[in-house]
Design goal:
- The structure holds 2 protein chains of 2 kinds.
- Chain A is α+β, with helices and mostly antiparallel strands.
- Chain A has helices at residues 25-28, 60-68; strands at 2-8, 10-11, 22-23, 33-36, 52-58, 76-81.
- Chain A has 2 helices and 6 strands.
- In chain A, the strands form 2 sheets. A 4-stranded antiparallel β-sheet of chain A has the order 4-5-1-6. In chain A, strands 2-3 form a two-stranded antiparallel ribbon.
- The longest helix of chain A has 9 residues, at 60-68.
- Chain A is globular and about 35 Å long.
- Chain B is mostly beta strands.
- Chain B has strands at residues 19-21, 43-46, 48-52, 55-60, 68-73, 79-86, 94-101, 106-113, 118-124, 128-135, 144-151, 154-159, 162-166, 177-182, 189-196.
- The relative contact order of chain B is 0.24.
- Classes of the chains: A alpha+beta, B mainly beta.
- Chain A binds chain B through residues 12-18, 20-23, 26, 30-39, 41-43, 45, and chain B through 65, 67, 92-93, 122-123, 125-135, 162, 164-168, 170-171, 183.
């Protein structure tokens, strides 16, 4: 299992629980945990540029796929074993 | 030693709590008409709650967004909440609200989502922002003990083996209102609501 911090887009309108503003990476990959590390004020979401740092916990294979992806690979800040 | 008295601090009526409620009362009693074990009483902020089977129960949803929120005044903005939460099968949120302000209807909440097998922290500020999420297997109609610690700008929420930490909760930093928050499903219940000072 891996823990990592990386960049992701926001997605969602925030209008309802079902469409809450949330990290795009959690929609694209199966994660055990995902936490907002940037804390952008809600009044300024979704910002421009649309980008913020999250900390994730996931399976090793998922982390490998994230690092290999065109969307997220260059935005991985650090990775460690859990 | 002779002549020295021990210092004893009495908090929350002698029980050590800022707020405490076992929700023991007659079925159908509105939460606002119910007397807390420790505390000045509940206020329905959004929707309503009542008592069913000696538990706080979501009675009706309100606006905005078909949710329900009830709060009590802890008298301070930093505290630790412990509560048993029980969400119906398919429910989208049964949880604890912190730093609620009636003037701007902004707050944070930690909740279980039976529908999504998830434990999450949100900020509600003219819309929902998911600040932390953990996948965890949940069963509708089951009691779960939730702990939510509010200290400065950090929310720490614990459930089963999961712990979520969101460290940028700066909205309503002096608000002392804390309580219950759930979505629109029926059969969402709470027991043993305890708020202690840090």
């Amino acid at each position: 299992m891996k823990r990592a911090q990386l960049l992701t887009l926001w997605t969602g309108s925030g209008i309802s629980m079902a469409d809450a503003r949330r990290p795009q990476i959690a929609q694209d990959f199966t994660l055990f945990k995902c936490t907002d590390m940037t804390g952008q004020p809600a009044a300024n979401l979704i910002p421009s540029p649309n980008l913020y740092v999250v900390e994730i916990v996931c399976e090793d294979a998922v982390m490998a796929a994230i690092e290999a992806s065109a969307e997220y690979g260059d935005g991985v800040l650090w990775v460690e074993d859990v | 030693m002779i002549g020295q008295m021990p210092y004893i601090q009495v908090i929350g009526g002698g029980l050590g709590y800022l707020l405490y409620d076992t929700f023991t009362d007659t079925n159908g009693t509105l939460l606002t008409a119910h007397t807390m074990d420790v505390g000045g009483g509940w206020t329905n902020q959004i929707g309503t709650f009542d008592i069913q089977s000696n538990r706080a129960n979501r009675a009706s949803a309100g606006s905005p967004d078909n949710q329900s929120v009830a709060t009590a005044d802890a008298g301070m903005a930093d505290y630790e909440v412990t509560c048993t939460v029980n969400g119906a099968a398919g429910s989208d949120g049964t949880g604890i609200a912190v730093r609620y302000s009636a003037s701007n209807q902004r707050f944070y909440f930690a909740q279980i989502e039976i529908l999504n097998n998830a434990f999450r922290i949100y900020e509600y500020n003219a819309g929902y922002t998911q600040r932390a999420t953990a996948s965890t297997s949940l069963t509708g109609g089951t009691d779960y003990d939730m702990v939510v610690r509010m200290e400065g700008t950090t929310i720490t929420a614990s459930l089963l083996t999961e712990e979520l930490i969101y460290a940028s909760a700066s909205t309503n930093s002096s608000s002392t209102l804390v309580g219950l928050r759930c979505g629109s499903a029926n059969q969402q219940r709470y027991d043993d609501f305890e708020v202690a000072s840090l």
